[in-house]
Amino acid sequence: MRVLIAGCGYVGTELGLRLARKGGHEVWGLKRDPNCLPDCIRPVCADLLNPSLKSHLPHVDSVVYAASADASSPERYRDAYVTGVENLLGALDSLSTPPSQLIFVSSTAVYGDAGGEWVDEDTVPSPADFRGTEILKGEDLVQSGSISGVSLRLGGIYGPGRAQLLERVRSGKARCLGNGHVWSNRIHRNDAAGALMHLLTRDDLDPVYVGVDDEPSPICEVYRYLSHLAGVPEPAVEVKVQEQSSNKRCSNQLLRSSGYSFEFPTFREGYRALVESETDGTG
User: Fold this and answer.
1) Suppose 30 and one of 44, 117, 133, 204 were both cysteines; which one would form an S-S bond, judging by CB atoms 3.0 to 4.6 Å apart?
2) How far apart are CA 252 and CA 76, in angstroms?
3) pTM recorded for the entire structure
4) What is the C-alpha separation between 212 and 152, in angstroms, rounded?
């Protein structure tokens, strides 16, 4: 299989490594500066915000759109998830042999706040802010395009080099809200890349999958586990009323039932592996 990863960053690079080294596939990584990509990923130096992308694109079987916003603003999210998608779809449509599928890396932010209730692929999205709104626009573009499109809605991504929750606990900045559970959902980078590889190599896909691990968890439960793991005091509890825009429990049952097996089924295995990698010097 020949695969183009558009926006080959944190998750995209891991996906490319797995496709090339473990699957034996040919992989291209599209970035503004692709010089940092591993040798097994062929570089494509291009900007998704430039409408004239066609001349840069290789002929491939599948495309993964894994770009992300480089700042938290409506403009940057629109660039990453709407303008970039429009430009890429236009360029792909103009190829003599367009790819047969496009997988869009989306986010559970499209659901907004569900008041702590369960959400899945059948739940109607209701974004709470510009992040979910612009990402959902990107999903709609992919689904309405001429190339068969699939969206993978990822929870909060963590992994090597991206362990903000752990650092917050270690620094003493983490706080537990004392006015009830606030549910959180996450996925290790390896499983985000693994799920994408799984979907790329399957037929008869559904249009949307939720990409989170097996255990949505109250954020305070995560903080307390991390404090024990790191050997620091548990976060203080603060009782205050605060509006939450992402309080939901996301179900991964559709992804599980499609045959995907998680490397890190819960945050416990994932963060334990991160701490152990620091200890043995492999992190």
Assistant:
1) 44
2) 29
3) 0.94
4) 10
Taking only the tens place, the pLDDT of each residue in 93-103 is 999 999 999 99
